[in-house]
Design goal:
The chain has 386 residues and is α/β, with parallel strands linked by helices. The protein has 15 helices and eight strands. The protein has a six-stranded parallel β-sheet, sandwiched between helices. The chain has a two-stranded antiparallel sheet with strand order 6-7. The protein binds fe (ii) ion. The site of fe (ii) ion has 5 residues, from helix 5 and helix 9.
Length: 386
């Protein structure tokens, strides 16, 4: 038995106006500090007020959101008692909104209960709406939330079907102000979601359909979005939809070793998520190709006839896209870490990647030696044959 789960999706120019049509009395907007300072939440607030709601803004979300911020937001939610919670921003803000929403609904639970095996039964007090401002994380359509705990930056990889928003509002107005570097990083993340989910053991016809459309769109439009001055609005819109489709793909089929390594590397060396998963995407392909040849071959018609004959064909295609958009292909390009620091941290990187949920449905189970081999190869960016 298989499931395909998704929020209801409102998309296109002016999609944000949908919020004015919702019966809402009290709405809480969860966003990061930068968006709060820039006033990016104001168009959302305006639409909610048109619906007759009083609005509270919780603009305290930090990158890699911490469990203590969940507590702060929850305190506000419990005092304010919203009937609508809106996550506004990139993955951090939307993940935070999921965690606050769940624990506001269920004060009897702790954050550690947000797993697929617990019956959450949410939606009794409020609705969750996600409004992404970047085109990459797919958090607006997925069931996962990543929250950091402790001093060492340990990541809690939480997930439950009830954490999927009731509505995802995809308005290209928000990503239109993304600078080229952020456009490249977030677009690389969306491509990694698509390719990793297509090659996952849990890929299925619905997730494949979403993933393949996203791959096609990203290869077609991401260079234009990074280089365009200004970026045509249809390009922004296509990529905004592709990121949500990539989210639907991996949200229903899982990510893989590329994200396992990316999460490990990003948490140890504090590198933006899209840059690290972009770094490891070519290795995801090279490591998994033999085990998931038929799945990768589905990308042939998307990328051009007979493109995907072997691992090197496809990984070269990704590396070529990275060249076009200025994405890092080696560790020294992605971060200032020295070779000595990298060598010292190698055992921890291997251990973190090895324990990541990103490996649960990966096409092959890597050994510690294979994880280390990929990490070492990423120092120079050299392809690896498996
Ligand atoms: Fe990602």
């Amino acid at each position: 038995m298989w499931f395909f789960t998704a929020p209801k999706i409102v998309f296109g120019a002016g999609a944000i106006e949908f919020l004015a049509s919702l019966p809402t009395k009290k709405a809480m907007i969860v966003c990061d500090r930068f968006l709060a300072e820039q006033g990016t939440y104001k168009p959302v607030q305006e639409q909610l007020e048109k619906a007759g709601a009083s609005v509270k803004v919780f603009g305290e979300v930090e990158p890699e959101p911490h469990i203590t911020t969940v507590s702060s937001g929850l305190k506000i939610a419990r005092a304010f008692e919203p009937d609508t919670i809106v996550g506004l921003g990139g993955g951090s803000a939307m993940d935070m909104a999921k965690a606050i929403y769940a624990l506001y609904e269920r004060p009897d639970l702790t954050i550690y209960d947000l797993t697929p095996i617990v019956d959450l039964n949410l939606g009794k007090k409020a609705r969750l709406i996600q409004v992404p401002t970047t085109s990459g994380t797919g958090a607006e359509t997925t069931w996962a939330t990543i929250i950091t705990e402790g001093e060492g930056g340990r990541k809690l990889e939480l997930a439950h079907r009830d954490l999927i928003a009731q509505w995802a509002v995809l308005d290209p107005m928000f990503p239109s102000s993304m600078p080229p570097k952020l456009t490249a990083d977030t677009g690389a993340d969306a491509l990694a979601h698509s390719i990793e989910s297509i090659s996952s053991q849990w890929s299925n016809p619905f997730s494949d359909a979403m993933g393949m459309k996203a791959v096609d769109t990203i290869f077609r439009y991401l260079p234009k979005a990074v280089k365009g001055q200004p970026v045509p609005s249809e390009v922004r819109e296509e990529l905004h939809l592709a990121a949500a489709m990539a989210g639907l793909s991996f949200g229903n089929a899982q990510i893989g070793i590329g994200h396992a390594l990316g999460h490990a590397f990003g948490s140890v060396f504090k590198v933006p998520h899209g840059r690290t998963v972009g770094l490891f995407l070519p290795y995801h392909i090279e490591f998994n190709f033999a085990a998931a040849r038929d799945k990768f071959a589905r990308l042939s018609p998307v990328l051009g006839d007979s493109t995907v004959r072997n691992a090197r064909d496809l990984s070269a295609k990704v590396r070529s896209l990275w060249d076009q958009i200025g994405m890092s292909k080696t560790i020294p390009e992605a971060t200032k870490v020295t070779e000595k620091e990298f060598e010292e941290k190698l055992p921890e990187l291997v251990e973190r990647a090895d324990s990541s949920t990103g490996l649960v449905a990966n096409a092959r189970v890597p050994t510690s030696q294979e994880l280390e081999r990929i990490l070492r190869a990423a120092w120079s960016g050299a392809p690896v044959d498996f």
